[in-house]
Each structure stands twice: as structure tokens, then as C-alpha cells.
Write a structure and sequence with these properties.
Strand content: 15-25%
Structural class: alpha+beta
Distance between the termini: 36 Å
Helix content: 25-40%
Number of helices: 4
Shape: globular
Largest sheet: 5 strands, antiparallel
């Protein structure tokens, strides 16, 4: 079954964005390509158990089995050697991607304490947006009494555009609650953000 958000994008949001962004062709309208969820446990003491917990919890949250990521360099302070397991990563596309996005913006983010929206400037200059989640307990799939350790996530939204402004409008249309309004000035001195 096609997710509600995917249907909404195809039937309404895409044509509205075409008009709003002033692009000539419907195929130039930005779209969400994939969502990458990354969870690192590299600095935790019992790393093997932490990796197992991260695999289980990321799978519960996303509905897809994550892959284990390995360290690329040795860090003595963390007692980390090259090739050791340091985290888990999952890439969502299609139906699972839209389902996850809907649950994130409608259910999980509103459960964050004192939530006023996500930072509107966390773009990478190539149309991709990364959101940091410091605690997995905001996801309703996680049972609070079964949490053994706090796990943080990086959620990266990869879009089809290289324009940060176009990507921001796409994510806003898909329901990502950005905080305040970003000023029209170019990034740099004097940029202000309105209070939420």
C-alpha cells in the first residue's frame, strides 16, 4: 500500500512546489531520494552489547535491518582499533522512507521536550539535511522500560537537488517542522532567525 505522504507528494505537493520554486519542468522539482539513519556507539564501554542494542532498536524504529559500520582509523582514547564495530546505519528508500518520515514528523518529534522545531540551517550546501536525535525514547516503537542505554541518531535527508533553499521548501512541504523563519540574506554576517 502506498504511504499517504508519498501519494500527497505525487498528487499535490509536486505541482505546488513547481509553481513555488519557479522551475520549468516537473522533473526539476526536488524529491526525497533516501533517508539515512546513522547511530554511533564507538565511545561506549561495552561496545559489543551496545552494537547489539543499536541493531535491535534501529530495526524496531525503521522496520529494516541495519548494517554495522566499522572504524576507519584507530583512536587510543576510545581504545578503538581499525576495523572495529562502531555503529549501525540503515538507508531507507521508497515506501519505508515515507512511512518513517511520517512517523518522525507526526509522532516522534512532537514528543521531544520543549520542542520548537528543527534548526533550519543544518544543510550541507548540496541540498541534504541532517537532523540529530539525542534519545531513542521519542520513538513510540521503543519500550521505555527496555532501554539499556541512551542512543543518539543522525538522520540525513538526501534530496535530488543541489539547492539548499529548494531542499528546505521540499522538506517543509513534507511536514518537517523548521524553527522560525530563516532570513533572506545570504549566510554570513547579520543573518538572523526569527523566534519560534
Amino acid at each position: 500500500m502506498t504511504p499517504v505522504l508519498q501519494t500527497l507528494y505525487k498528487e499535490k505537493l509536486r505541482s505546488a512546489l513547481k509553481e513555488q520554486l519557479g522551475v520549468a519542468n516537473i522533473h526539476q522539482v526536488p524529491k526525497l531520494d533516501k533517508i539515512v539513519i546513522n547511530c554511533s556507539v564507538g565511545s561506549q564501554g561495552e561496545r559489543k552489547q551496545a552494537i547489539e542494542d543499536a541493531v535491535n532498536e534501529v530495526q524496531l524504529i525503521t522496520g529494516q535491518k541495519p548494517v554495522i559500520t566499522k572504524s576507519k582509523k584507530a583512536i587510543a582514547n576510545f581504545k578503538l582499533r581499525i576495523g572495529e564495530n562502531v555503529g549501525v546505519k540503515v538507508t531507507l528508500r521508497g515506501t519505508k522512507m515515507y512511512d518513517f518520515l511520517m512517523r518522525l514528523v507526526r509522532t516522534a518529534l512532537p514528543r521531544v521536550r520543549d520542542f520548537r522545531g528543527v534548526a533550519p540551517r543544518s544543510f550541507d550546501g548540496r541540498g541534504n539535511y541532517t537532523l540529530g536525535i539525542s534519545d531513542q525514547s521519542i520513538f513510540p516503537e521503543i519500550e521505555l522500560d527496555k532501554i539499556k542505554r541512551a542512543l543518539g541518531f543522525d538522520i540525513t535527508f538526501v534530496t535530488s537537488t543541489n539547492n539548499d533553499d529548494h531542499a528546505r521548501e521540499l522538506l517543509r512541504a513534507l511536514g518537517v517542522p523548521f524553527r522560525g523563519k530563516i532570513s533572506q540574506q545570504k549566510k554570513g554576517e547579520g543573518e538572523t532567525e526569527a523566534a519560534a
